From TrEMBL:
Entry-linked InterPro entries: CAT-like_dom_sf
Family: Belongs to the plant acyltransferase family.
Short name of any one Pfam family annotated for the protein: Transferase
Organism name: Deinandra increscens subsp. villosa
Lineage, top ranks: Eukaryota, Viridiplantae, Streptophyta, Embryophyta, Tracheophyta
Domain of life: Eukaryota
Single Gene Ontology MF annotation: acyltransferase activity
Alphabetical UniProt keywords: Acyltransferase, Transferase
Protein name: Uncharacterized protein
Length: 425
């Protein structure tokens, strides 16, 4: 009982330290033309869960008077990114209503210091409070929400929460950098939203899961010096990239934690998101193509006999990536993705879902206060074994944001190989 009260008091105290001080809706500076009022979702857009993925940017040198610049530049950005100011009418409707209803913009004040937050290894309610409407389910019709958080030290965190229906990591990065460029007085290029040629509804896949287990999310930092050691350790038929090597390690150790806890070996597969923009041939892809233009590669380890070898994981993942054929347009990208999902149906293996935002320009997001001192990609409210890989602030390593079942996380974070190749934040 004493432990429960302590946790409750800590939670209540945390809530009292973070306060929403204003809220308004930012609408596009120019109305969306009539012929663009309905955006037909592509196959992949439809399959993507309507769950907002929060991107958190921390700045030391924010000036409070800059909020009007933020709002005005966001309004101008929404003219180019017009679906983001619209509404997802329902999860089952294959369109976005580009009605210019706008983006909710929250301003909040925190008694915490920026340095206390960015060095937290555990992403718990302290981080969640920075995120607008974080606890909403997938019924939230707003495709984008923003929250500007002021810390007691003078620093700030800009949080942009974007529905996966609106686009993938590439699209999210382009949108935020577009906004930041306008805030600095620049004139970035507008994107092209690739919509479906029809409003045909695709089969539904359950990405949220139905289990009721609790998950924990932790941050782990892997410097390049250690990643190079890891790459040298892996004797794969193809020289692994940093992302491939680290993904295989995390996958192996996560499966090991699950095996230790359950006492039995469960077949397990790694899913890894693959950007398909470079797979579209000819001149069928605009310079800035927005939306979800990706598929997944799978390293199936169901036949590993319980012993997962890093080189085998890398080889199988690389083989599946290289077998993805070139396509003509976003419609064919969707067909590839749908086929991939269909072939995985009925597989009772445990699934570990990886995505990498490494080399994406998230540390270039400068609203006029300099580059962010820290960027965090928080998972949405999706359940499951989910791993995001992002660059470290210096660019000299990779930070892994790992979500696993709570009891498995206790074992995972003590794994000797995780400890060998990682270091403190």
């Amino acid at each position: 009982m004493a432990m429960i009260m302590t946790r409750l008091q800590r939670f209540v105290r945390s809530r009292q330290l973070h306060t929403i001080i204003s809220q308004e809706t930012i609408k596009p500076s120019s109305p969306t033309p009539p012929h663009l009022k309905t955006h037909n979702l592509s196959i992949i857009d439809q399959l993507a869960p309507n769950v907002n993925m929060p991107l958190i940017f921390f700045y030391k040198n924010y000036t409070r008077g800059d909020i009007n610049i933020l709002k005005k530049s966001l309004s101008q950005t929404l003219t180019s990114y017009y679906p983001f100011a619209g509404r997802c009418l329902a999860p089952s409707v294959p369109q976005i209503d580009c009605n210019d209803q706008g983006v909710k913009f929250f301003e909040a004040s925190s008694d915490s210091r920026l340095s206390d937050v960015i060095h937290r290894r555990e992403l718990d309610e302290t981080i969640d409070e920075l995120i607008p409407n974080y606890t909403l389910s997938n019924n939230n019709p707003n495709l984008v929400e923003v929250q500007l958080n002021h810390f007691s030290c003078g620093g700030a965190a800009v949080v942009v929460s974007i529905s996966h229906k609106a686009g993938d990591g590439y699209t999210m990065g382009k949108f935020i950098n577009h906004w930041a460029t306008i805030a600095r007085g620049g004139s970035p290029k507008a994107p092209t939203f690739l919509s479906s040629k029809s409003n045909t509804k695709v089969p539904e896949f359950d990405f949220k899961g139905t289990n009721t287990v609790k998950y924990a999310t932790r941050r782990f930092m892997f410097p390049n010096s250690k990643l190079n050691e890891l790459k040298n350790k892996i004797n794969a038929s193809v020289n692994p990239t940093r992302v491939e090597a680290l993904s295989s390690l995390i996958f192996k150790c996560a499966v090991g934690a699950a095996t230790t806890l359950s006492g039995s070996i469960a077949p397990s597969n790694m899913y890894h998101v693959v950007d398909m923009r470079k797979k579209i041939v000819g001149k069928n892809l605009p310079e800035i193509a927005a939306g979800n233009i990706c598929t997944i590669a799978v390293a199936k380890m169901a036949d590993s006999g319980g012993e997962i070898k890093l080189n085998e994981v890398v080889d199988r993942l690389r083989k599946d990536i290289t077998e993805i054929k070139e396509v003509r347009d976003v419609e064919e990208v969707g067909e590839v993705f749908l086929t991939k999902l269909s072939t995985l149906g009925g597989d009772q293996s445990r699934t570990y879902n990886f995505s990498s935002l490494c080399r994406f320009p998230f540390y270039e997001v400068d609203f006029g206060w300099g580059k962010p001192v820290q960027f965090i990609h928080k998972n949405g409210v999706l359940d499951g074994n989910i791993i995001h890989l992002i660059d470290t602030p210096s660019g000299e390593g990779i930070e892994a944001i790992v979500q696993l079942e709570e009891e498995e996380m206790v074992i995972f974070q003590k794994d000797k190989e995780i400890l060998e190749f990682s270091q403190d934040l």
